Amino acid sequence: MLKIGIVGAGHLGRIHLRLAEASEAYKLVGFYDTNEFDAKTISRQNGYKFYDDYQKLIDDVDVIDIVTPTLSHFEMAKQAIEAGKHTFIEKPITNTVEEAETLIKLLEKHQVKGQVGHVERFNPAFLASAPKIKNPMFIEAHRLAEFNPRGTDVPVVLDLMIHDIDAILSVVNSEVKSINASGVSVISETPDIGNARIQFENGCVANLTASRISLKKMRKARFFQRDAYISVDFLEKKSEVVKMKDAPKTPGDFDMILQNAEGVKKQIYFDNPKVEENNAILEELESFAKSINKNEQTRVTFRQAADALRVAKSIINNF
């Protein structure tokens, strides 16, 4: 078992603490948090060992899991990597692209593994759908959330939309050509709702909308490609795949047949994948342990996370 230490004991940090303790891949050594009063309370209530010195926690573990505000990611990760520790960072990887690039170089220099917590990659609906997404040419994503003061220190793009940016970049095998975007600040000092249109070199277009002032929650993405439509509901953990193929010469009574203006007939059928339930956060943490133990590339690399951050920053700059 890999010895792991958690950095940050806020809402998400406490989830990581609980899952790390339950995981068969890790031995939870303890945690560090700058809020000593709250940390001691959490330690007393749950039995987790509290470290008041970050370096001491680093010294005692194999893996550091950083679940702190984005502004602190770089310094926390830099210290851990330079100490030769494998490092997991919650999304977004860092506050700036330059910081992310520096961490990538440090990983290579110190020969340790790094992974970023883009948890939607481990959403069971996306895991089931991703193998069926091949050369999509139009993508539409909506990520709507009710207002929550937590996270409003950053624009909605880094708070919410970056999930969809990362997921889309993972299935579109092409470089970004251009970005157009607009955003509006309603409650926060930074945009609370935003829309981005990303055009890729291969002609694919992605239209993304994110809002943290919605009256209802929604986390959906739709992928359109030749002869197929794939819908992924990240919130409800459901997937729907609608495909088309050449219509049979003698259609059955219940076959769904469409005919275009040129007279070509296509049969519509459903090819919905089986969605296996999981705990996405636990799965991403355990996938990181597997990558370390087997010396394999991590599922969400620092490079991939840096690319998602670069696109996110470009969107923000276009507001």
UniProtKB/TrEMBL annotation:
It comes from the Bacteria. GO terms for molecular function: nucleotide binding. InterPro entries: Gfo/Idh/MocA-like_OxRdtase_N (IPR000683), Gfo/Idh/MocA_Oxidoreductases (IPR051450), GFO_IDH_MocA-like_dom (IPR055170), NAD(P)-bd_dom_sf (IPR036291). SUPFAM superfamilies: Glyceraldehyde-3-phosphate dehydrogenase-like, C-terminal domain, NAD(P)-binding Rossmann-fold domains. Residues 2-118 form the Gfo/Idh/MocA-like oxidoreductase N-terminal domain. Pfam families: GFO_IDH_MocA, GFO_IDH_MocA_C3. Residues 153-216 form the GFO/IDH/MocA-like oxidoreductase domain. This is Gfo/Idh/MocA family oxidoreductase.
